[in-house]
Fold:
Amino acid sequence: MNKTDAVPARHPDGVPVRVAEDIIAAGAFVSAKGWTPATAGNLSARVDGGAMAITASGVDKGSLRSPDVLLFDLAAGKVLGGLAASAETALHVERYTADAAVGAVVHVHARNATVLSMVDASHEIRLEGYELLKALDGIRTHETGVAVPVFANTQDMDALARDVRARLADAGPRFGYLLAGHGLYAWGRTMADALRHTEALEFLLGCELERRKVMR
Ligand SMILES: [Zn+2]
Structure:
């Protein structure tokens, strides 16, 4: 065994080093994009053994450190030691427990997503005909449409998580949803997929916002 093999694969709080590094890098990315103003937003990734790693409450996503990434037991519904998890933890738990293919969840307060969710706070926003739809998993052509559900914002995250689960259960492929006046949730098999979906949806929602301005 050489010295590298002796490096522990997990931090003392149980978050695998690779997962913590993924989340820290993702935080730097979303922060640099301006999507997490004033410590908003949160990031998580599935951890083997029925857990997720999620960012602590109230930390700047652009300067995350390992202790800011908490291990959360999905079955027990609680953080395993350490700081308080994000206020929106229930929405992350919902994605991991609803869909075994979800490996990472990204939540941002991005401007286009937030504005369009207020302009059109109806049932859902349809994105159709855009080339960048191909950035979403499994989509191969612009000749398609993707629905982005919109939910009324609330501070009751448990009730909201139940609404999300009920509405997404029988839906076709979904890559993200909006909370009105609040922001975007997106997910994917890996953190890279979740970030790509976040970036694509924020861009597409921006296009849709501009299109509505000029085509009224
Ligand atoms: Zn939020």
